Amino acid sequence: MNDIINFASKPREGDPWEVAIIGSGPASFTAAIYTTRGAASTLILGGEKWGGQLMLTTTVDNFPGFPEGVQGPDLMQKMKAQAERFGAEFVAKNVEAVDFDKKPFEILAGGVKYLAKSIIIATGADTKWLGVPGEKELIGRGVSSCAPCDAPFFKGKRVAVVGGGDSAMEEALTLTKYTDDVTIIHRRDEFRASVAMQKRVTENSKIKILWNTEVTEIIGKDRVEKLILKNNKDGSSSELPVDGVFVAVGHVPSTQVFAGKIEMDEKGYVVVKDSAAVNTHEGVFVAGDVHDWHYGQAVTAAGFGCMAGIEALRFLDKPAPSW
């Protein structure tokens, strides 16, 4: 890593950080790049398992600046190094509690209390996995949650999508650009997706649908080889040979620690107002999948991180970098 450029100095012991960023995905590190370059002392509380969903992704082909693609963990390492280069301090501890009623704000992480004049929440969202045997072991080896990220690796292969909402439909349709063998597995006898999305799927000859069916196990040694299925109407079991399975049963925003502290919607996503980064609580800003349930892409998370960083600098009455 290059030598640190001290755009932002660390506060004296006992003094608050000007910006504390909770989270460690593309939104977090992008926000830190902006706040440090805006001369705001910046603390990143990234968590023990830092890096977000990209740490579970193999080659990322749709992030600008990498014409040959980039491994998800490598991209996160580069973002982290860039934020640290400008003076951000990274702490790999989980946030245990927050107090947004005190000024400066208080954050407890790893048993240590941190103070901050402003906070950027960038904790992201976690994939809602199936929780069946073999799934966890084969993530990144045939088990995926992002067709736009991983579909090219399954060109001409047999793939399955688990889910029945719009995201599952989008996953399946994306996969048909690379293979003619796509099976949607849905536990009900009708989709929850919009009528328009259902029509696109049912009219696509490359897509087969298994209704009233659940995945009970994912089989494979080094790669996914087949799925064990159960018909929840008659209880019968079957096997489906596949090379990949895309789980699209939803995401869970990582907002549990903020419950009762700030406004969230019925699904647990943080509410924003006025702009895509400003929360209803003054001095608290938001970036990435923790509020964005619609796009869920690394590049959009980074964009939201830019917005949150700039809004935090404006709140602190500091000039925002223009590039």
Automatic annotation (TrEMBL):
> Which keywords does UniProt give here?
Disulfide bond, FAD, Flavoprotein, NADP, Oxidoreductase, Redox-active center
GO molecular function per UniProt: thioredoxin-disulfide reductase (NADPH) activity
List its EC numbers.
1.8.1.9
Q: Which GO terms describe its biological process?
A: removal of superoxide radicals
Describe how the cofactor binds: Binds 1 FAD per subunit.
Subunit and partners = Homodimer.
Q: What is this protein called?
A: Thioredoxin reductase
Species in which this protein is naturally found: Candidatus Woesebacteria bacterium RIFCSPHIGHO2_01_FULL_40_22
